[in-house]
């Protein structure tokens, strides 16, 4: 592929890389697996980039490729046996923003989200990214009504996990 | 407060907390090879195709003994050449369908459509393997019979009565069936492991639509 295309792609990815990081955060448990998935998503984005026509935003396009890679294409790496805790490695939590109660609550919430299945995680991801139900349904390939119903069920499931 | 709303609050803030990849870290990633399920499926299908072609045709070209015995056994065997022609046609159709199917797999499709297309591709590979196994089961007694007849061993199949011949065909079919069954079970297990996650997620998506 041509150099200007490559440069354009890298610039865009560098700018919007948080989307990929966030997908990785939901679908992996440790640093190595996070980087593995990040790389696979990058490869898939790059392979699909020549066909990216720009009629949708680059970020919107990334959501779809990122989620599809995580849910469908990605084969879990052998390196996932590394048990190093994700949050302590990938995040740089500063002392001043650390709130122990809220942090504890969030930890439980992330743990609960990790217990959801791949499809439920995708719905949660799109919801957290503030996507409306039309966008969620288009990305997942289900109807808007069913996306809404499933999202409510996911919320209930999360509540049950948190308060057994 | 809704649990997800609390999470959303943190989610938005988490943007600055990731270890950012620089352009110099991203460039080498573009050169790395994908380890996606589609690529694995592609390699497996090519391997299956090459393996079957190898089993069918290579011994004929590399071994003079095999070639002589082959000519002696199937000399003027119209039926054999029909089967051979049919297998060529099937291989060409299979390659065409597989190519067409791989072309439809696009990572920018909706999740459900992408899964559907991958599973469709896997089905084409499966049909080809099932076709080959079926042909082995059907053809094995016939070829064993012809082969034994030509070799003129102590076991003279030409002298067998109708009942004995039926028993002979029955035993060969059964043994082939068992062998093919084991091969198919192993094959299903490999695909089962490879596509376990995909199948589970596809079922989950379909369940949402019910």
TrEMBL record, chain A:
Belongs to the sigma-70 factor family. ECF subfamily. Residues 12-80 form the RNA polymerase sigma-70 region domain. It holds the Pfam family Sigma70_r2. Keywords: Sigma factor, Transcription, Transcription regulation. Residues 108-158 form the RNA polymerase sigma factor 70 region 4 type domain. This is RNA polymerase sigma factor. The keyword Nuclease does not apply.
UniProtKB/TrEMBL annotation, chain B:
The chain crosses the membrane at residues 41-61, 81-99, 125-148, 168-194. Keywords: Membrane, Transmembrane, Transmembrane helix. This is Uncharacterized protein. The lineage of its organism: Bacteria, Pseudomonadati, Bacteroidota, Flavobacteriia, Flavobacteriales.
């Amino acid at each position: 592929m041509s150099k200007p295309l490559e440069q354009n792609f890298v610039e865009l990815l560098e700018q919007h890389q948080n989307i990929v990081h966030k997908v990785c955060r939901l679908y992996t448990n440790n640093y190595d697996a996070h980087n593995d998935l990040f790389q696979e998503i990058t490869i898939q984005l790059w392979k699909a980039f020549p066909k990216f026509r720009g009629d949708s935003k680059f970020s919107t396009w990334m959501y779809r490729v990122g989620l599809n890679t995580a849910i469908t294409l990605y084969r879990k790496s052998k390196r996932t046996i590394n048990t190093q805790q994700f949050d302590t490695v990938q995040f740089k939590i500063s002392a001043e923003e650390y709130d122990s109660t809220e942090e504890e609550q969030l930890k439980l919430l992330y743990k609960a989200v990790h217990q959801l299945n791949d499809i439920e995680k995708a719905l949660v991801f799109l919801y957290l990214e503030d996507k409306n139900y039309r966008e969620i349904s288009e990305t997942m390939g289900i109807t808007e009504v069913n996306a809404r119903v499933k999202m409510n069920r996911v919320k209930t499931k999360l509540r049950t996990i948190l308060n057994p | 407060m809704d649990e997800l709303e609390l999470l959303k609050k943190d989610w938005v803030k988490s943007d600055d907390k990731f270890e950012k990849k620089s352009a110099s870290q991203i460039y080498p990633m573009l050169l790395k090879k994908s380890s996606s399920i589609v690529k694995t499926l592609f390699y497996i299908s090519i391997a299956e195709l090459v393996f079957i072609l190898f089993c069918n045709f290579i011994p004929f070209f590399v071994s003079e003994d095999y070639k002589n015995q082959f000519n002696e056994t199937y000399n003027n065997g119209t039926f054999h050449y029909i089967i051979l022609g049919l297998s060529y046609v099937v291989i060409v159709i299979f390659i065409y369908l597989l190519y067409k199917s791989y072309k439809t797999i696009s990572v920018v499709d909706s999740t459900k459509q992408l899964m559907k297309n991958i599973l469709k591709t896997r089905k084409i590979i499966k049909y080809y393997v099932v076709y080959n196994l079926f042909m082995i089961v059907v053809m094995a007694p016939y070829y064993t019979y012809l082969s034994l007849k030509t070799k003129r061993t102590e076991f003279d199949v030409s002298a067998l009565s109708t009942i004995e011949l039926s028993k002979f065909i029955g035993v060969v079919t059964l043994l082939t069936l068992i062998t093919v069954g084991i091969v198919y079970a192993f094959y299903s297990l490999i695909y089962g492991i490879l596509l376990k996650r995909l199948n589970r997620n596809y079922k989950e998506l379909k369940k949402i639509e019910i």
